[in-house]
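Table S7 (text form). Paired inputs.
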Amino acid sequence: MRFYLFYLLGLLSVTSLTNAASNLICYYDSASYLRQGFAKMRPTEIDLALQFCTHLVYGYAGLKPATLELFSLNVDLDMFYYKEITNLRQKYPQLKILLSVGGDRDVDEAHPNKYIELLEANRTAQQNFIDSSMILLKRNGFDGLDLAFQLPRNKPRKVHGSIGTYWKSFKKLFTGDFIVDPLAEQHKSQFTDLVGNIKNAFRSANLMLSLTVLPNVNSTWYFDVPKLHPQFDYINLAAFDFHTPLRNPEEADYTAPIFFLDEENRLPHLNVEFQINYWLQNQCPGQKLNLGIASYGRAWKLSTGSGLSGAPVIHETCGPAPGGIQIESSEGLLSWPEICSKLSQNSSALYRGETAPLRKVTDLTQKYGNYALRPADENGDYGVWLSFDDPDFAGIKAGYAKGKGLGGLAIFDLSYDDFRGLCTGQKFPIVRSIKYFMG
């Protein structure tokens, strides 16, 4: 009898792991349609990836600050493109297609806190958001809405000398962590109430609702996990960009490590494991969580003071290195095919200088991530340090997600993967690797 019980428990365990990591959430930024040259991505290029994706998240819609209504950020494009995207379901009937609001596209310098204003608004004003969302979704054939609200983000770690480090620790005894939002507890409660009202309306209209937690948005500030998770069909944690050359110009480090590397005064929450565990430990079922992976890399400019080894943390960096030539506003950002084109295939190639390739350093521990570098020359020029998840490490993260019993993975986004097969001839290598390791 005892043997049978152990056998049955083991079988249930295997079954749960088999069912885990079945989702592949594919984000598609419509702004990629407006890029030039090989970076321009049309619906015909999306088609191949959709045989691997379970969900397609189309970004991005915006929020009108005056009326708090949902609206298209590019009406001339979306009035035709919405239907073209949702019609893809005819070929892939199991595909769920959602519209995402916010992300990093709905940048409104005149109203930088409009998503907080939505939380603070009265019930009538919030109903404008709910009603306009339902109309836009139903009119264009979307299956639901993804909330990628631009909430205040935690402040980046500051670079300190030894005296500064001690002073910071002493100061925190009195002031706590940096306060970004003094009304965070109030906003957490308001977000919970708003989501509940959206879900009630969407339930009657048979619409899905998902949450995207953007990079460096502190889940402890805004998300009451036990109350929130029942309201969402799934939750995507964008667990990357913990460090970027814009946020951390003076030092370079892994942008999306899986685990905490307790060295160099690193902060313990800037890793995948901490972010996932926070939601799991607060009663969110693993099946509702999808681990977000970036299909791009972040590049810092190295100085002569940055040294030659390349082992992070890299000090005395000078902000972002030049980004990809095909992507707009891409300071310090390179898509996977652009990264691939810069990596050395020749062990005898030049080590420094403008024409020298980047030398890849593979993380044999499979815990933190790969990086590549080209040290600065004697004049302090042409130095680059690049952190990225290539197809191999994306597969490692897929295996990690499966082992944690998560619902799946989310890729940000399809347009940064090698959708033309420029690197090896294989299209969407990151998407394919994730799907393969998900099983």
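Next pair, protein 2 of 2.
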Amino acid sequence: MDPNQGCPCDAVRVFCNFTAGGTTCIDPRQTRIKIRREPDVKKSEFWFTEQNGGNKFEYAGVDVVQLRFLRLHSRTSFQHISLSCAANQSRAAAAESFSEIIRLMGDSGKEIDSHLITESRKGCEVDVVVRVRGSTELHRGDMEFLPVRDLGVETSSVSHLASEVAVVLGPLCFL
């Protein structure tokens, strides 16, 4: 699709899910990632970008202009992220700590506000949904939070943190 209705050469590949109310979704280039805590390092927070040469999460074929037009023409946008601890860790203990240790950085370069995030837990698996609304002028700026560009793990408050967190980054969807 071509949200800015310009040249078709800058069109974006999307998945349109009509059974989900007509959502338009864009896949991330990399869906499965791992965040690792090095036991010898004395840092309290680890970010995906730090472990990957400063590279942020990218989305297939989306440039700034097309993303801006998708936001303007949408009432809401959302993104699912699933996290799980490594198999060799205390899975129940690590699952209890996930809500305190996950940080999400939005497209705006700011950390995503907790009131925009919901999570559900099942053992050592945590599903996170970031949902923003842009239907009113009051909330229009919230659309700048998505897509998620970086994910951090806070370790200072949790001594039994899993040494590795597996992350599945879902598509960025607009409605």
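The two ends are 14 Å apart (CA to CA).
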